[in-house]
Structure formats: C-alpha cells, structure tokens
Amino acid sequence: MKAILKTLPPGFEFKIDETFTSETNDKIRRKLIPQLLAAMKPRYQPTYEQLNNWLKALHKHRRGRYNYQQKGNIDRDNRRLHSNNRLNEVSKLLINIHLMLLTIGFVLT
Question: Which whole-number Å values give the CA distances from 6 to 10, 95, 109, in the listed order?
Fold first, then answer.
C-alpha cells in the first residue's frame, strides 16, 4: 500500500501537522480511499474500514515523527525509536511464524 500511496498525486497527501480526523484530512480521505480501493481491487479486496485503519496507522507514525522533529527530540530519541520498532518487527515475525506452523499442524514444545 505504501507503494501505491507514493504514486498518487501530491494533492492526496495528509496534513501531518493536523490530526487524522481534522476537516482537511477528512476531505482528503474521502477522495483517497475510493481510489485506493480501485487500485488494489484486482489482487486485494480490503474493506473501507481496513483502508481507513491502515491510513490511520501511517498517519500516526508520520505525525509522531513530525512532532518529535518539532520538539527537537528526534536526534536524541531516534536510536530508541529505531530499536523499539525493530523489536516490534521481530516479535510480529515470530508470531506470524508460530501461527503459520500451527495452521500446518506443527506444534512447538
């Protein structure tokens, strides 16, 4: 989905300095989600709510980084933020592997 978002016209960028539910971001979201649904349709069938949640998560991440930059904490906390993200990625990977093994009938002891 990030690749699709990169190919959209610049008018569809969320305002990072505003909340996700602000009026301007609502207008952008109302135009963006139908286009994303159409772009993803042949291969993926996400619901409107799923796309909204994905966009909310992306906006939350970008807004958090923006707020850290505005406060001047981005350099000091960047290493911590990176390591926390890395830990989350590894734990999600391990959970996915465990679930995959469970679906094929392999039980970990």
Answer: 9, 29, 43
Q: pLDDT tens across 84-96, in order?
A: 666 666 677 777 7
SS3 at position 14: coil
Predicted structure pTM score: 0.61
The torsion of the CA quartet 8, 89, 59, 29, rounded to 10 degrees, works out to 50
What secondary structure does DSSP assign to 20-62, as a single string? TTSHHHHHHHHHHHHHHHHHHTTT----HHHHHHHHHHHHHHH
**Rounded Cα gap, residues 28 and 26, in angstroms:** 5
Q: What CA–CA distance (Å, rounded) separates 34 from 40?
A: 10
Using DSSP, state whether 73 is helix, strand or coil.
coil
Record the tokens describing residue 97, joined without a space: 């592997």
Q: Tell me the residue type at 38.
A: A
Domain borders along the chain are 2-103
